[in-house]
Amino acid sequence: MAKTIQAIRGMNDCSPTESPLWQWVETQVREVLNSYGYLEVRMPIVESTPLFARAIGEVTDVVSKEMYTFWDNDEQLTLRPEGTAGCVRAAIEHGWIYNNEQRLWYMGPMFRHERPQKGRYRQFHQAGVEVFGIANPEIDAELIILTARLWKKLGIDQHVSLQLNSIGSLEARANYRSALVAFLEQHQALMSEEEKERLIKNPLRILDTKNQALQQVLDDAPKLLDYLDDESREHFAQLCALLDSVGIAYEINPKLVRGLDYYNKTVFEWVTSALGAQGTVCGGGRYDGLVEQLGGHAAPGVGFAMGLERLVLLVQEVNASIPLKSAVDIYLVYQGEGTALAAFQLAEKIRSALPQLGTMLHCSGGNFKKQFRRADKSGATLALVIGESEMLNNQVVVKHLQGGVEQQTLDIEKVIDYIQSQF
């Protein structure tokens, strides 16, 4: 017997029993984004490697350690590790944002080569939003309010909390970096080798370290908010006032910096304690210099991304009333000479008249007892039964599989009207 081939570690299958929940979560995301007037875009999974190096930053963990990169002839390509860089590239390439505002969203797989664990995989899925051409804090507030509305739709709003910060301008951040490095150099004995490397390459990332001893020391470190430029300070104050006005609770977290180099001013994360170590459900912020950095005309930008695996896990964990419906509403069973033809014709009439319903034809033979077992297992509400006598009399037996209603025999011309009355 040939050796079986299994999925690559960290790249998971989604079973038929799991996919209805995924579809429901994705539908809620689409409905909220569409209700705010955002437009869907779809970008390639593979991009030129320099795109991510320039956008995300060569010294970030994502670019230096986690990307899936390969050569295609003489060109270096990468499976996208996040969506913002590709969306900015597409917007520049196709002229979507030249002297124009855009509110865009996307959904799809991303790839990072890291140690797989619950809620963190090598192939994972994100829904993301990118807004271009709007510099004021109103749009920052809208993105946060939009996500808060989504949490309510998903039934997880009581289990997530908002952390907020401003990391200021590039100049303010450079001044802060110098002060932070001077402070951290006094505590290198507490640092791991990786943290010592970050101290040289990307010291702000040390602020979200999981090293408990270093975390305690960081409580006395210089605060980024104290180094903000006046414009960033005013932008942040206006954002907080807007969130206060609509009752969005938040915690200002001075250690929140996000892990990618392109952020400036607003950064935020929605976090949960219900998923253990993988507590970030959604994160984002401003990246006003990124469009120009990637070769476009200067345009402000702001966005966020949410991990769908973690959203699905969180919904499973805390929402016991997910309104999932079976993919099958009507199950046709038939037995006897000539009944297959009648069943096929009826199934197609139902699909034409009531395309919103799932209609399944048995197809695999067997007696009525076997067929009804399959009908029950399908989760259908109604079974339509055609035997030889029903076929000869141009009739159908209607059986309610969920119980409570007696079965009845209908003329075939009345079946569609009856089905419509039951859904």
Automatic annotation (TrEMBL):
Alphabetized UniProt keyword annotations: Aminoacyl-tRNA synthetase, ATP-binding, Cytoplasm, Ligase, Nucleotide-binding, Protein biosynthesis
User: Does the UniProt entry include the keyword Cell inner membrane?
Assistant: no
Q: What are the top taxonomic ranks of the organism?
A: Bacteria, Pseudomonadati, Pseudomonadota, Gammaproteobacteria, Pasteurellales
Quaternary structure and interacting proteins, as annotated? Homodimer.
Q: What is one term from the GO cellular component aspect held by the record? A: cytoplasm
Its gene is hisS
EC class:
ligase
Alphabetized InterPro entries for the sequence: aa-tRNA-synth_II (IPR006195), aa-tRNA-synth_II/BPL/LPL (IPR045864), Anticodon-bd (IPR004154), Anticodon-bd_dom_sf (IPR036621), His-tRNA-ligase (IPR015807), HisRS-like_core (IPR041715), HisRS/HisZ (IPR004516), HisRS_anticodon (IPR033656)
To which species is this protein native?
A: Rodentibacter trehalosifermentans
Question: What name does this protein carry?
Answer: Histidine--tRNA ligase
GO BP annotations, alphabetical order: histidyl-tRNA aminoacylation
Compartments (UniProt record): Cytoplasm
Task: Name the positions where L-histidine binds.
Answer: 82-84, 112, 126, 130, 258, 262-263
User: Family, per the entry?
Assistant: Belongs to the class-II aminoacyl-tRNA synthetase family.
* Residue ranges occupied by any Aminoacyl-transfer RNA synthetases class-II family profile domain in the UniProt entry: 25-323
Q: Which SUPFAM superfamilies match?
A: Class II aaRS ABD-related, Class II aaRS and biotin synthetases
Q: Which domain of life is it from?
A: Bacteria
Please state the protein's primary subcellular location.
cytoplasm
